[in-house]
Amino acid sequence: MTEQENKKIGKIRTRFAPSPTGSLHIGGLRTAAYALALAKHSNGDFILRIEDTDQKRLIKGATEKLQETLKTFGLFWDEYYVQSERSKKGVYQKEAERLVRDGHAFYCQCTPKNAKKQGYSEILRDTCRDKNLNSGAIKLKIPDNEKVSYTDFVLEKEINWDTSLVSDTTLLKSDGFPTYHLAVVVDDHYMNISHVLRGHDWLPSTPIHLLVYKFLGFERPIIGHLTDILDPDGGKLSKRKGSVSCEAMIKEGYLPEAILNFVILLGWAPKDNREIYTLNEFIEVFDSKGFQKSNPVFNREKLDWFNGYYIRQKNDEELLELLKPFIPKGANIDKVKAIIPYTKDRIKKLTEFPTLAGFVFSTSKEVEPEIVSDPNQYVTHISNATQSLEKVNNWNLASVNEALSGTIQEHSFKTGGFYMDLRTTISGTTITPPINESIEIIGREETLTRLKKGLEKAKK
RNA sequence: GGCGCUAUCGUCUAAUGGUUAGGACGGCACCCUUUCAAGGUGCAAACCCGGGUUCGACUCCCGGUAGCGUCACCA
């Protein structure tokens, strides 16, 4: 009954078809991941197709960056096509001319209109359609009062239109390049795409594509429209609340696996509500029945949680490599390495590492002691801490612990207050990794220098 | 405005006619604890509204409302 059932069971072939007009954003990444998972779940093919038929909007290097970004997320493609190259070979023009010959399209020489400027006036049938021109743009001759429909495999329902509400649409521009409507149909056909997965915004133009498939005599693929990711403030996702470009997010300290895991769960869910997936695990369990039908909101707290989770999963060596781009030049790499275990479950983004642990691998010149408690008590704490640490010859965690806890006992200090004074003196902040561990890494000499500096500051 | 899609805690979602409506993030409380985290335990928090259908509706149907998308020689 449904198209899906009627479609002969062949290899699943999907494609991701971005325009090289900017960097890959979070929504595009999601579409690509879904398309890849759909294909790879049953050992199908995933195709990357660059839709660069609008010469005006091209951005230099965007195609290369797009590929680079997909790779960093582990999204690899089996085949690769570029529409502008195919266009130069006449692939689309040939089909457009065929439509003209068959009476399903016509040449038009009107200047491009923009419905928005016209306030959505209802010019549904183009005035050139009966002029029999033989040059210009080629437009589709939309029939009147015809029903077109298809079954959406994401929405899981049949969607219908009356062609009377569809305007004659440009298929081939006067520069010889196809519009999306022609290119997508022709390419999906010749590339044997079995499943079309695309953004929700394409749903309203689907009747055009349906008609083109029909007039060209092509069997149509199974089509599904994904939800849109919404901004927390409503509407389409925008940059206002932080970056939505994958590249920018990575620079912000997000891990690719966290971004990916987060994004696949925005609009898709398994029956058991499992949350953590590697790409391969996702492919394994992928089922298009899990697609959501309503638009999800981009929720940064959840992303941060995923990122913290994936940071915690890294071992110290892996984390060191990941952290390198975020560490200031000249930082003592041994100290960085040593403090990593104590920062791992304290940061949600890689960018937080230097903020949290910078005092460990900076010099005393760069660290300004902070005094947050009562000055008299502060001096007592720090001078006693200094005295006991000065006696430590074999500087290691155990001996530092012993010296300090001995001092606390001896003077009946309050543990929390004592360590807080120590902490702010050594680090300049109230939030740090465990302070004794930090002190051990910082070293005897540097530690004592900072304590003296704090004491001097307190006396002023 | 026309056309179309959608509607469960604040957010992401599970449920496929009968459940105390489940989980996750976030929030709150407690435990752990030298700060902050992480971890553990617990709590609060939802079926858009109105009609049907049915012995029984979050689940099915209709209407409303709201949100979103789209209406270019851009994709």
Please name the defining characteristics of this protein.
460 residues, mainly alpha, Rossmann fold, Glutamyl-tRNA Synthetase, domain 2, Arc Repressor Mutant, subunit A, 3 domains, three-stranded parallel beta sheet, three-stranded antiparallel beta sheet, 19 helices, 44% helix, 10% strand, elongated, disordered N terminus, RNA-binding, aa_tRNA-synth_I_cd-bd_sf, tRNA binding, zinc
What does this structure look like?
There is one protein chain. With 460 residues, the protein is mainly α. It folds into 3 domains: 3-103 and 143-164 and 174-226, Rossmann fold (3-Layer(aba) Sandwich); 239-347, Glutamyl-tRNA Synthetase, domain 2; 364-459, Arc Repressor Mutant, subunit A. Helix content is 44%, strand content 10%. The protein contains 19 helices and 10 strands. The protein has a 3-stranded parallel β-sheet. A 3-stranded antiparallel β-sheet has the order 4-5-8. α2 crosses α10 and α15 runs antiparallel to α19. The longest helix has 16 residues, at 375-390. The structure holds one RNA strand of 75 nucleotides. One of its GO terms (cellular component) is cytoplasm. GO terms for molecular function: ATP binding; glutamate-tRNA ligase activity; tRNA binding; zinc ion binding. Keywords: Aminoacyl-tRNA synthetase, ATP-binding, Cytoplasm, Ligase, Metal-binding, Nucleotide-binding, Protein biosynthesis, Zinc.
